[in-house]
Amino acid sequence: MWRRPKVPVVLSRGEAQRLLAGREGTPGLIARLLYGTGLRLMEGLRLRVKDVDFARNQIIVHDGKGFKDRVTMLTSIGTLITAATTDALRKTRSKDATICVNIV
């Protein structure tokens, strides 16, 4: 039996902007990275700070589809967002370390 080919659903530029603008915090960061870099959902969720190479503007994806490693580009907006997030993470971790030192 003949089937119609499935046509992929594509968002317009305005729809994509509204979708990304409606997300904040960690979900917003992940959504922007998925959209801007072409990462798959699980690749974005498994992403670690050490996988982002700011010097080369690239992301190293480990155990992606087919359990293969690959490299993808990091967009300029992604670089700004990711850098701001990693700075915030470093401040939080240093604050946590200070609290632990004061307790001991």
Any overview of this molecule?
A hairpin with a 4-residue loop joins strand 1 and strand 2 (58-61). The chain has a three-stranded antiparallel sheet with strand order 1-2-3, with no helix packed on it. The protein has a single domain (13-103), classed as Intergrase catalytic core (hpI Integrase, Chain A), CATH 1.10.443. It has four helices and three strands, in the order αααβββα. The protein starts with 12 loop residues before the first helix and ends with a helix. The chain has helices at residues 13-21, 25-37, 41-45, 76-103; strands spanning 52-53, 58-61, 70-73. Helix 2 (25-37) packs antiparallel against helix 4. The chain is mostly helical and 104 residues long. The model is unreliable at 97-104 (pLDDT under 50). The relative contact order is 0.10.
Order of helices and strands: HHHEEEH
Strand content: 5-15%
The CATH level-2 architecture is identified as: Orthogonal Bundle
The 3D shape can be described as: globular
- Span between termini: 72 Å
Strand order in the largest sheet: 1-2-3
CA gyration radius, whole angstroms? 18 Å
CATH fold label:
hpI Integrase, Chain A
Name the CATH superfamily classification: Intergrase catalytic core
The biggest beta sheet is recorded as:
3 strands, antiparallel
CATH class, please? Mainly Alpha
Mean pLDDT: 78
Low-confidence stretches: 97-104
Quaternary structure: single chain
Q: Which class do the helix and strand fractions yield?
A: mainly alpha
Query: What's the number of structural domains?
Result: 1
Count of helical stretches: 4
Number of strands: 3
Helix percentage: 40-55%
